[in-house]
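Field guide to reading this record: the first block holds the primary sequence, the second block holds the structure written as discrete tokens, and the final block holds curator observations. Each block starts with its own label. This record concerns Nucleolin, catalogued under organism Frankliniella fusca.

BLOCK 1 — SEQUENCE
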Amino acid sequence: MTNGYDDRNHDWGGQPNSFEEAASRKPLKAKMERFDNALKVYIKNLPLDDRAACNMVLEQFASCGVIQHHLFFEKKLAGQRIQQGLVVFTTEEEAEKATTLTGTEVGGQHIIVSKFRQFSQPSAKMVKITNLCVETNEEDLWNLFENCGTIKFIHIDRPLNSSSLKAEVHFKSEKCVRKALKLDGKSLKGNEICVSCLINEKEEQKPSKEYPVFVAGLPHDIRKEDLIKAFGDCGPIKRIKIIVKDVEEEGRAVIFFMDSESAENAVTCNGLEFSGYVPSVTQREEGMLQHQFLNPLFVAGLSRDTKDVDIFLKFQDCGLIHDIKFVASKPGSLKKCYIEFKEPESIEKAMAIEDLSVKGQTLFIGRTREIWSVQHTAPKPKKKKKKKTLDLDINNLVDEDLATPCSKKRKLQGVVEQITEDANESKLEADSPLEKKIKKKKKKKSADV
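BLOCK 2 — STRUCTURE
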């Protein structure tokens, strides 16, 4: 009997992403054989950091038949630590007998035992629970529904970016389901839960699915937290698988959404900038495998009105250009693009260009996307200086404050005198000929005196 437990460092084999991965992974000391799925049983709701409880489980399962292999491991889902296990028997009858141990209390918790994909399809003997608190575990649901009847299986969906959880509880009979529906609206860990069941046969035959989205062209040091932040608004994410084969190569990831609408929303992010990279987002795995740049040259610092024709005219002497694609950028910031040449020698010629400017804007080029990570801000337009205008108030001009300089005051008084003379002349023109003669005589007399 092989054992996945290491006495030296008290490790149950790391953190695989699923039961199936745990069954096919290599043990710590020896190469593990491949076993038929019909011989495997999976154990959930085990106590954390309790080796004695795991040994007790092995003793219970040993009564069902001969154990070929066993493995206990810990995984972290939505920030919650979970202990799980895998046991492989020699015959299908022994594995079937082991499933009857569901509900056995080990270390203060009721273990849940199932075969490979035994409860993968919905049925009339199950209920759905929504609006669960993120801290809810299988033991909480067991304690809530144990009075309804015999529980066969409990599964909790733990999206990585959701504020609430969903769960399924499978019972032995439909009579238990009717009792469970009466718990609709009951409070569990501060949340008022919703309990429902399948209504029609069409929905009963519909299998539960995951909707994968394949993302390529990511940095090699990408983390799950970064992908949750980038794609979290598209919809609830069930799990994420990151693929990085080499440090020098680009990273890839598979994001599993819980519904098709969320996956379609994620595809709309194709071509958007992400940490200086432009990932390819598709719903087909072939699209991820075909995402390879052809002799790329990355360009930054382009003005907002730059077109692909401007780039082509600038770099056409370097060699045959296969494609030019711009990168979506924030409003007000400079544009970015990459050029795909047919020959790798064209990149060397482009790097040797001295006058790198298009439409008066200096360009920055590089062989990698790192040139995009540098912040190239657009120059701010110069503000035109407004001409100062002198507003004169004729009524208050003479009574201006005495603190005004004398030279400035004289100029202002001259302007006032000129305005008054012009007003008198215009008034004189408006008088009748007789009145003009009388006024002229009066002026002469005053002059003679």
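BLOCK 3 — OBSERVATIONS
The chain has 15 helices and 23 strands.
The CA atoms of residues 240 and 352 lie 42 Å apart.
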